[in-house]
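User: Here's a structure from my thesis project, written as structure tokens. My advisor, Dr. K., wants to see whether a designed sequence matches the one we expressed. Can you design one independently, without my sequence as a hint?
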């Protein structure tokens, strides 16, 4: 196999919560499946038992999938001809983690730590994932946002070894040839693809987008146990409009303006068609596509294949789960809620879409009526119908009638907050400090517990700091952010800041889609994922608790979400996998057995 592919009384709608039993919240305990037998151990993706290795000698050490470094047993050293290639002392994985963490800690800045981890990943994937798993909360910001954004911006200058599949728009006839380097048929479960136009709030990064695909797939393994050997990161290089890259003599991508229009659409279509031909059961995850392309590409393929856009759907799901928790704590009903979204790109409109769908479903309102409870702003100001063709297809449903705002042109954020008196304010603008003290204090005048989510990434682009929001609302705000922040002081106590981290959501969705072999990822499945995530909110048990569960419990969250996805796929008739258990406990075990874990499995030679 190719190596790189490797429940106080709640006012929340009962239909959102009925399928989950509330107990006092406590950190989840992971149940390892790697060392115990199971009736499902025979499954092809069962992550236990011996691992067949066809290499020997130096080739074993050069394979990130099989390399154990100093942890090869004496028997393995003999069988795979490793004597003389390794120091004699045999160490445990835990000892290796200790040494690797000391090396990691010696790096003097976050980007250097990111580079160190990237090098480790291509050398020894088990050690890479075990190290992160051991220090998850510390390292997540290093291997993903915000530090990954810095790595992507410097991709061509930090380049050492290629990882993933590079497709460029000038060489479309070779797409199949390029993809064939990564196997075929059943060998790939999960593909992440990006065209690099809107990366992590830092814009067009061209070919450097391969790193966002790599990082997202690392998270699916870390958070949901997707097999690293059954993944494929892809970049669609269409050129770049980033002048600094075009002028950089070391830039590795196509040195030309970004291609758009018909040729671009043909490129995306050809990639998806070819990928589905070669890997007919693979789940395709679109990542960081531009505002004018993301939604239409998703809508084009969603009815026909299992696909997902994290910027639209993942952000919408995790933010909606936090919102539902906030509505519970603030005692606001869905049919009454007023939400202002500042920033109407893929993330902002994705949140609006998920929220409108939920309001409509749970209150029996029409989607159009539900949309009237949401006010969206973008760079010019409030979205109004008079903007006409300037509105993207994703923005149009949320544009307000101009007669609601006579003589105001395009109202700004403060004007909207004064008039709307929102219960919730969400920032996806990448405009730092745009949630000013005046805006926040105005909002806090009208609602007892203002729900405020500055979500833009990386951290330097946040609309406001949690500490300031807490101070400006006299400790009344319910806060969630897009990156990790320390707790804030509130009446002598610590208030934990919830992180709207997509990694608590999209890996579990992908796991459920992969294991069920669903033909499509329906809106009903996404609602089920939101239910599963919202049910884990500590705020449902303690109003002073964070609105979302801790990222440290992400593996258990992924199991819950995957179960919800699989059950819904079966219910809707989309699941194509045979033998999916109907008993809830058996389904739980069936999922866990197929989740890869960072442990060294015994290596054996092929028969």
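Assistant: Designed independently from the structure alone:
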């Amino acid at each position: 196999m190719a190596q790189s592919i490797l429940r106080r009384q709640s006012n929340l709608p009962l239909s959102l919560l009925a399928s989950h039993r509330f107990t006092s919240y406590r950190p989840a305990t992971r149940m390892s499946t790697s060392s115990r037998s199971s009736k499902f151990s025979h499954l092809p993706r069962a992550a236990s038992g011996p691992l067949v290795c066809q290499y020997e000698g130096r080739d074993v050490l050069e394979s990130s999938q099989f390399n154990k470094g100093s942890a090869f047993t004496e028997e393995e050293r003999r069988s795979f001809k490793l004597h003389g290639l390794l120091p004699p002392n045999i160490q445990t994985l835990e000892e290796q983690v200790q040494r690797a963490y000391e090396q990691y800690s010696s790096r003097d800045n976050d980007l250097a730590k990111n580079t160190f981890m990237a090098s480790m990943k291509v050398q020894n994937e088990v050690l890479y994932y075990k190290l992160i798993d051991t220090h998850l909360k510390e390292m997540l910001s290093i291997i993903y946002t915000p530090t990954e954004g810095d790595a992507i911006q410097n991709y061509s200058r930090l380049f050492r070894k290629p990882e993933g599949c590079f497709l460029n728009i000038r060489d479309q006839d070779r797409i199949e040839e390029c993809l064939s380097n990564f196997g075929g048929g059943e060998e790939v479960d999960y593909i992440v693809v990006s065209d690099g136009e809107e990366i992590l709030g830092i814009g067009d990064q061209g070919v450097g987008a391969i790193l966002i695909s790599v990082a997202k797939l690392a998270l699916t393994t870390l958070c949901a146990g997707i097999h690293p050997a059954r993944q494929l990161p892809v970049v669609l290089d269409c050129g770049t409009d980033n002048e600094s890259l075009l002028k950089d003599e070391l830039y590795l991508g196509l040195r030309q303006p970004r291609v758009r229009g018909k040729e671009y659409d043909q490129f995306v279509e050809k990639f998806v068609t070819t990928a589905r031909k070669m890997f007919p059961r693979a789940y395709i995850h679109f990542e960081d596509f531009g505002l004018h392309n993301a939604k239409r590409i998703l809508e084009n393929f969603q009815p026909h294949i299992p696909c997902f856009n994290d910027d639209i759907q993942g952000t919408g799901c995790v933010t909606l789960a936090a919102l539902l928790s906030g509505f519970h704590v603030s005692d606001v009903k869905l049919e009454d809620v007023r939400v202002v979204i500042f920033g109407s790109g893929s993330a902002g409109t994705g949140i609006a879409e998920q929220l409108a769908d939920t309001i409509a479903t749970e209150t029996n309102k029409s989607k159009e009526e539900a949309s009237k409870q949401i006010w969206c702003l973008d760079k010019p100001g409030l979205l109004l119908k008079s903007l006409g063709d300037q509105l993207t297809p994703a923005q149009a449903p949320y544009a307000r009638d101009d007669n609601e705002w006579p003589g105001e042109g395009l109202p700004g954020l403060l004007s909207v907050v004064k008039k709307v008196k929102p219960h919730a304010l969400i920032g996806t603008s990448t405009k730092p400090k745009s949630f000013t003290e005046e805006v926040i204090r105005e909002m806090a005048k009208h609602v007892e517990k203002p729900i405020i989510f500055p979500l833009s990434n990386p951290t330097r682009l946040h609309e406001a700091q949690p500490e300031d929001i807490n101070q400006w609302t006299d400790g009344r705000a319910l806060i969630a952010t897009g990156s990790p922040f320390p707790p804030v002081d509130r009446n002598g106590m610590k208030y934990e800041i919830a992180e709207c981290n997509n990694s608590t959501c999209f890996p579990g969705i992908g796991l459920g889609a992969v294991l069920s072999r669903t033909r499509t990822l329906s809106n009903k499945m996404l609602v089920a994922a939101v239910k599963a995530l919202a049910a884990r909110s500590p705020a449902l048990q303690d109003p002073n608790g964070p609105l979302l569960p801790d990222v440290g419990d992400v593996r258990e969250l992924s199991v819950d979400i995957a179960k919800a996805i699989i059950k819904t796929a079966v219910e809707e008739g989309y699941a194509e996998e045979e033998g999916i258990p109907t008993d809830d406990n058996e389904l739980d075990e069936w999922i866990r057995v197929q989740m890869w874990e960072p442990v060294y499995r015994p290596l054996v030679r092929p028969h």
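When you compare it with your expressed construct, this may help: The chain has 24 helices and 16 strands.
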